[in-house]
Amino acid sequence: MSALRPEENAPSRVAEAVLIVVALALGMGGMWMVGYSLEDSLPEGFWTYSIVLAALAFTAHIVLRLRAPYADQVILPSVVLLNSVSMATILRQDLVDIDGANASRHLMWTALGIVVACVVLFVIKDHRSLRRLTYTAMIVGIVLVILPLVPGLGREINGAQIWIFIGPFSAQPAEFAKIAFAVFFAGYLVANRDTLALAGKKFMGLQLPRLRDLGPILIVWAVSLAVLIGEKDLGTSLLFFGLFVGMLYLATDRVGWIVIGLVMFAGGAVAAWSIFTHVQLRVNIWLDALNPDLMDGPSYQLVQGLFAMSYGGMFGAGWGEGYPQYVPFAFSDFIYASLGEELGLTGLLAILLIYLVIVQRGLRHAVGVRDGFGKLLAGGLAFVMALQLFVVVGGITRVIPLTGLTLPFMAQGGSSLLANWIVIALMLRISDAARRPSALPTRGALADPAPAAVGGGAIEVGGGSPVQAETEAGAGGGTMPEDSTQIIRGVDR
Questions:
Q1: What is the mean pLDDT of the segment spanning 83-98?
Q2: Which residues span the membrane (predicted)?
Q3: Could you list the residue range(s) of the whole structural domain that residue 42 is in?
Q4: How far apart are the C-alpha atoms of 461 and 451, rounded to whole Å?
């Protein structure tokens, strides 16, 4: 494939800028309609919010085009759209709350998130450099998960101990732990995918791993159970364990790992339910939310959210015409219910479609990038966003028990916004490597003797014999066995 001159990438820059303008227009239109619906005028702070959002979005666009010129041109506008619509929703709630200042805080954390994302794009010139931090990332992730359990540092809020407080500042470490775990899993699986995919005995059609290969998954299982039991947080527990099992499947293409993972998680969850009362309460709320004994207490928030979405119907009550003040935490945990009340089922499906676009683009670049670590990291980051979306929406709609996770980019929350903007920055960095013509090296590229596959076997380049894989370049690597049954050809865009 011939190299492209930099100016030949200009249409993608224009397309991204146009999409950002559309995204900002939709968010500003929402704020405008909220103001005229409630006050018959532009809402207070309309121009401040609009100008700051526009400045932040185009700053990110410029940084992206300078530091990663071949990066995906759809992901950033999609995230800007979600942030803009959430600003309209949170501003609408502030207008009926005398002490409401959530819109200002949401804008502040959005600004900080975009700044951090730009810093990540400047600092990380090649995503493969993260592979050197494989086991460091594991330690960081475990420490972050344990922090809320430290006496005097962690604090229980709304039944879950997932927050830490340092003076006037608070944070939810699990949001950052998921990024650290994704880096660790990608590095570990690239180095060990062949033994995980091929070694071991078969039992009832399943490829069972060797006992020594179960070490990392047992550690993650134990950490997930510790989160579930000690922090009373079913959502984070499911998120961590689901991330590892999902990335195991991406790396090995073995259904057996999914079966083993589901059995282990189900066994741990059943054991926790039989022992701990707070887990039993969450399950009871899920199964019998309309029970009169629960509606005025534990299930009040869930029931009010269901009533709000029911009131919205197919097309919603309209911006500013709902009653978000009756849904506790409608600006954060239950912002999805607030959106459903005013935008209806149609609006909720449109929002889910935007998330689907982000996840699809992430998975697409996981296929397109030329190294195994990048494939697994991009796939893991896209998968964890999809899983978090399912856990949040599933809890609010009673598909699964309610959890304490927040909707990425939309819920008002500093930790969530910061962490998810970092995820987007890493996705964009990997997409730049995936879309960059092979004749043009990545900025500061590391030595990469051959592209690596997500599957557990050798890669066949141009129909030739299997070559030594990229796994030698990172932690604990080795050559791929020549008898591997999975041969994946490189992607030629």
A1: 86
A2: 14-34, 46-66, 73-91, 106-124, 133-150, 162-190, 211-229, 235-251, 258-276, 334-356, 376-397, 409-428
A3: 6-435
A4: 9
Nearest to 383 by CA among 261, 194, 246: 246
> Is the residue at 479 inside a domain?
no
274 Cβ contact list (under 8 Å, min separation 6)? none
Q: What pLDDT was estimated at residue 392?
A: 92
What's the confidence (pLDDT) of residue 479?
Answer: 36
Region of poorest pLDDT, from 5-14, 227-236, 283-292, 376-385: 5-14
| Cα separation, 442 vs 331, whole angstroms | 41
**Short-list 275, 283, 185, 267, CA closest to 234:** 283
CA 103 remoteness from chain centre: 22
Question: Quick one: pLDDT at residue 146?
Answer: 84
Residue 155: φ, ψ to 5°: -145, 140
User: How many domains are contained in the chain?
Assistant: 1
Instruction: Please tell me the distance from the alpha carbon of residue 484 to that of residue 251, in angstroms, as a whole number.
Output: 14
pLDDT given at position 6: 42
Query: What does the mean pLDDT of the chain come to?
Result: 80
Q: Which 3 state secondary structure label does DSSP give 206?
A: strand
Q: Per the structure block, which two tokens stand in for 293?
A: 């004994």
CA 134 – CA 186 distance, rounded (Å): 8
- The whole-number average pLDDT for the span 462-482 is 36
How many helical (H) and strand (E) elements, i.e. helices and strands, does the chain have? 15, 7
**Does residue 450 fall inside a structural domain?**
no
Round to whole Å and give the CA distance between 267 and 129: 37
Residue-wise burial string across 325-347, b where 16 or more C-beta atoms lie within 10 A, e elsewhere = eebebbbbbbbbbbbbbbbbeeb
Distance CA 35, CA 396 (A): 27
Please work out, in degrees rounded to the nearest 5, the angle formed at the alpha carbon of residue 238 by the alpha carbons of 195 and 224: 70
Q: Report the distance separating Cα 27 and Cα 156, nearest Å.
A: 34
Q: Each residue of 127-178: pLDDT tens digit?
A: 999 999 988 998 898 888 888 888 878 777 766 677 788 877 778 888 898 8
SS3 170: strand
pLDDT at 209: 65
- Does residue 461 form part of some domain? no
Residue 432 has pLDDT above 80, yes or no: yes
For residues 176 and 144, the answer to whether their CB atoms sit within 8 Å is yes
Over the stretch 99-136, which tens digit does the pLDDT of each residue have?
A: 567 888 999 999 999 999 999 999 999 999 999 998 89
Question: What is the chain's percent helix, strand, coil content, to nearest 5?
Answer: 65, 5, 30
Q: Which amino acid is at 21?
A: V
**Tokens representing residue 249 in the block:** 């499947």
Residue 407 pLDDT exceeds 80: yes
Six-digit token pair at 27? 């968010």
Answer for the pair 478, 136: CB distance below 8 angstroms, yes or no.
no
Cβ 92 vs Cβ 342: under 8 Å:
yes
Using an 8 Å Cβ cutoff, are 305 and 327 in contact?
A: yes
Is 477 within a domain? no
